[in-house]
Amino acid sequence: MKWLEALEPESEEGLEGIEAWLEGLGVAHDPQLVRVYRLHILQRFHDYATAEPPSHPAEAEAHARALLQRAHDDFVGSDARSQAALRIHRQAARGATAEVPVAHIGRGRVG
């Protein structure tokens, strides 16, 4: 996503963390919601940014702001399981389960 990388400042730190992106783009957000759904919001933003690049480079910042606002707002009044932003939740929604034999639980390998 070169278009998104172009928005990062040229400092060594860049934009690190969801809070930096939200503040850097001027996105209105609920700090408590961000603390709880940080990874989910970032994953949803990544999904939107990958699927919907801006139509023109000059629109990149406004487009990123809108996508990040949308990703944040997806979790307002909702929860992680309902939104299924992470793979684990999408698998659970499909009924996928993982089985781990009891012999594989522990510090060392059995056998």
From TrEMBL:
Keyword annotations of the record: Nitrogen fixation
Subunit structure: Homotrimer; associates with NifD.
Cross-referenced InterPro entries: NifW (IPR004893)
UniProt record similarity statement: Belongs to the NifW family.
Functional note: May protect the nitrogenase Fe-Mo protein from oxidative damage.
Official protein name in the record: Nitrogenase-stabilizing/protective protein NifW
Entry-linked Pfam families: NifW
Source organism superkingdom: Bacteria
Sequence intervals crossing the membrane: none
Any one biological process term the GO annotation gives: nitrogen fixation
